[in-house]
Specification:
binds 1,6-di-O-phosphono-alpha-D-glucopyranose; Alpha-D-Glucose-1,6-Bisphosphate, Chain A, domain 3; about 550 residues; single chain; about 40% helix; 5-stranded mixed β-sheet; alpha/beta
Length: about 550
């Protein structure tokens, strides 16, 4: 097939000229930024996805247009590798190079990539594209498609989907449909069938009540949850709010609830202890929360989800009589109390890796059953091929193994999937006869706080030891250590965000007051040593938990 690389430059110059003068990086989860600069980035990612597919003998590569938890006016793009994983690290570097060259250099850069990697440009190329419901997404989707078409690749559009649905479609197609059908119906059918099989007809048990309130973050998750419910025949009693009437992620959604440590707005909750679930803008993260009879807000975040799931799975595996090892993967954001609980009570191996599900996913694959969750609610469970085979065989004679097989089908193993995670959590709470209070009672979180600090260049902060130790700028880690030493059970770390132009500061301590003091002391130090912009962060005068 003759592919004319000259067409690349013509397309770029006429339709998708590069407007952003500042360099942009493939970050924690792809490129993110103000949508007005992203046309050229999308076009070039279409080109790259096409090349990657050819490099991998025509395997389907996914492209998801979303800025996930970021507010408007941001948008972004993530590439999905054939097994539903995030794009491999070595291609992240290629992606960064490709989006930063000038329009004139595009043709030569693409020719260089083809030559360096020995890509056979005559091979087939297949790219799947989907988008969230931000108003600029359709225009950006067209740019991705044009990128693929300019290299004569095949492109299939999936319209408005959640990020995990795109991951599902990619792996379903690449496994010749063994994972499921690569369609919206295929996705719903797989998850709902498994969920309803486990749940049976008795919808309430012990303290478990079949009633949840769903906060859709005004994103795509709300629409898809409504589609789930249409097909569920009442097996889950769920009311959906923040369906798109307001701005995406604005005062709602999983990130807001986790960071602000308060309920989303737009949820008419009158009954105390109502089980509420919040997803983010593209529905790849989930957290639970409730307000008790004393008006106290309680958060059940990714750490709680990981421990609940690990406990349930270990019990089930024991009943199956199978010799399978299970491990949990966390990041530095994991609450110290959750890690203690995993080590001391669950007695499960626990690993700590840098932020980003791409890191957690790979580590989790080292176990027969790997449970990974970031504290922000982003995560899933992966089962090795060996584990699945053993469970499948055992299911012929063992009822628990048959249940475990269905549990595997409720899970979207490719990446964090807020709705799939929620169905699994509901399955577990139902099976244990638990409500949110029983779940909360498993351990007591250390009070904690997350702050953002604006600096001139966040990349001046570099870290090691799974982001728990700061390498540069000079003196920051030493200063941080001195501050932390003054707090009982104090722990703090700083790192540059890979999705927003900020430095993140995390702090936890024995009391809420101390956690807040510690966070602001560290934030002020970052501001001083890392080129802070604007006011020095200071503790608000009447500090409470809703900072
Ligand atoms: C993305 C990543 C997550 C990460 C989050 C925040 O989430 O997929 O793994 O925890 O960004 O990253 P950072 O602290 O580097 O900004 P999402 O939901 O925005 O795609």
């Amino acid at each position: 097939m003759a592919v004319n690389l000259r067409a690349l430059y013509a397309f770029a110059r006429e339709m998708y000229p590069k407007k952003n003068p500042n360099p942009i990086q493939y970050g924690t989860a792809g490129f993110r930024g103000d949508a007005k600069y992203l046309d050229s980035v999308m076009y070039r990612m279409g080109v790259l996805a096409c090349l990657r597919s050819r490099f991998l003998d025509g395997k389907v590569i996914g492209v998801m247009i979303t800025a996930s938890h970021n507010p408007e006016p941001d948008n972004g793009v993530k590439l999905i590798d054939p097994q539903g994983e995030m794009l491999v690290g070595s291609w992240e570097e290629i992606a960064t190079k490709l989006v930063n060259v000038s329009d004139k250099e595009l043709e030569a850069t693409v020719a260089g990539i083809i030559e360096d990697l020995g890509i056979d440009i005559g091979k087939k190329s297949n790219v799947y594209v989907g988008m969230d419901n931000r108003y600029h997404s359709p225009q950006l989707l067209k740019a991705v498609c044009d990128g693929v078409l300019s290299l004569k690749g095949n492109v299939k559009e999936f319209g408005i989907v959640t990020t995990p649905m795109m991951h599902f479609y990619v792996v379903a197609q690449n496994t010749s449909k063994a994972y499921g059908l690569p369609t919206e119906e295929g996705y719903y059918t797989k998850l709902i069938t498994a969920f309803e099989k486990i749940r049976g007809t008795k919808l309430e048990k012990g303290n478990y009540k079949n009633k949840i309130v769903f906060d859709g973050a005004n994103g795509v998750g709300a629409r898809k949850m409504l589609q789930f419910l249409k097909r569920m025949n009442g097996s889950l009693n769920c009311e959906v709010f923040n369906k798109g009437e307001g701005k995406i992620n604005h005062e709602c959604g999983a990130d807001f609830v986790k960071v602000q440590q308060k309920p989303s707005s737009g949820l008419p909750i009158t009954e105390p202890n109502t089980r509420c679930v919040s997803v983010d803008g593209d529905a790849d993260r989930v957290v639970y929360f409730f307000t008790d009879e004393n008006g106290q807000f309680n958060l059940l975040d990714g750490d709680r989800i990981a421990t609940l799931i690990a406990d349930y799975l270990m019990d089930l595996v024991r009943k199956c009589g199978l010799d399978l090892n299970l491990g949990i993967v966390q990041t530095a954001y994991a609450n110290g109390a959750s890690t203690d609980y995993i080590v001391q009570k669950l007695k499960v191996p626990v690993a700590c890796v840098p932020t980003g599900v791409k890191h957690l996913h790979h580590k989790a694959q080292e176990y027969d059953i790997g449970v990974y969750f970031e504290a922000n609610g982003h995560g899933t469970i992966v089962f090795s091929a060996k584990a699945k085979e053993m469970i499948r065989k055992s299911a012929e004679t063992n009822e628990s193994s048959a249940t475990l097989l269905n549990v595997i089908d409720v899970i979207n193993e490719t990446v964090g999937d807020a709705i799939s995670d929620m169905l699994l959590i509901e399955t577990i709470l139902h099976s244990k006869g638990w409500d949110v209070k029983d779940w909360l009672n498993t351990y007591v979180d250390l009070p904690n706080l997350l702050l953002k600090v604006k600096v001139q260049d966040r990349n001046c902060i570099t870290t090691t030891n799974a982001e728990r130790t700061c390498v540069t700028p000079n003196g920051l880690q030493e200063g941080l250590d001195k501050i932390v030493a003054n707090y009982q059970r104090g722990r703090s770390f700083v790192r540059p965000s890979g999705t927003e132009d900020v430095v993140r500061v995390y702090a936890e301590a024995a009391s809420r007051e101390d956690a807040e003091l510690l966070a602001y002391e560290v934030a002020a130090l970052v501001h001083k040593l890392a080129g802070g912009v604007g006011e020095v962060p200071t503790l608000p005068p009447k500090h409470n938990s809703h900072i």
